[in-house]
Prior knowledge:
Blueprint: E1 2-9, E2 12-18, H1 27-42, E3 48-53, H2 64-70, H3 72-91, E4 96-100, E5 103-105, H4 107-113, E6 117-121, E7 125-127, H5 139-142, H6 148-157, E8 160-162, H7 163-168, E9 174-176, H8 181-193, H9 197-209, H10 215-232, H11 234-240
Parallel strand pairs: 2-3, 3-4, 4-6, 5-7, 6-9
Antiparallel strand pairs: 1-2, 7-8
Amino acid sequence: xxxxTSSPEKGISVxxxxxxxxxxxxxxxWFALAEAxxxxxxxxxxxxxxxxxxxxxxxxxxxxxxIQARGEGALVGANRGCFEAFAAVYECEVPVVAAVxxxxxxxxxxxxxNADAIVAGEDAVFGLPELDRGALxxxxxxxxxxxxxxxxxxxxxxxxxxxxxxxxxxxVWRVVPPDEVVAGALELAREIAxxxxxxxxxxxxxxxxxxxxxxxxxxxxxxxxxxxxxxxGVGDRVRARFGEAGTAGSAGKGERx
Length: 257
C-alpha cells in the first residue's frame, strides 16, 4: 500500500500507486508520488519512467473522506500535493509513460495529462467529476487530452470519455486489453529507453520549453478557484452530498454518446 518504485528492466523505472480500494490518494500520498517520480528522473541510469497503479482503477483523485474529516487543512494539503505530483510528472527529467486501466478521474487526469505518453486498457475511462465533488481544477490537463469544446463539455457535465475516444483525438498511444496495460507501457518505455540517455533528457527539456501553455501556472490559477469555493462554503455544501444515493457524486457519469 502506498507508492513504490521498481526497476524491471535496464533503463526503466516503474512508479506504482496503491491506495485501496479505489486509489483515492490522501494528502501524504500525493507528496510521496511526487518524490518517487522526481527521484526516478534524477537517477542517471533511468531513461524512462512508467507510472502505474494497482487495484480497481488507475486513480480516483483526492481522498474526499479525508477532506470531509480534516476540513480546510486537508483541502490546502490536497491542493499542494496535487500540484507537486502533477509538476513532478511534467518536469521528470526523462519521459513518463502512463499505464492506465479502469477509471482515471480528477487527479488521475492531472497525472496523465502531464505525462509524455499514455497506454490505456480497453476498460479505461477518463474524466473530471470535480463539480460533483465541490472542487475545481485539472482542466489544464484535460485540455492536453481533448479539444477545447469537448474539454468544457466534459468539465461542466462530469462525464467521462473512453480510451478509444482519446485515441481518436491522438492523446492515447495504444489501447490494449486491461491485463496487458503495464506490458504495453513497458514495451513503449523499452523503445524510448533504447535512445541515448543524455539526449533523451535534453529532448524532454526542449519539448517542455516549447509548450504553448505553462501548465504549472495554469493549474495554480485553477486552484485559486478551488480554494474560493471552499472559503465561500459552496465546496463543503457539495461535498456533504458526495456519495449519497441519487446525487451526482454517488456514481460516475456514463460515457459520452
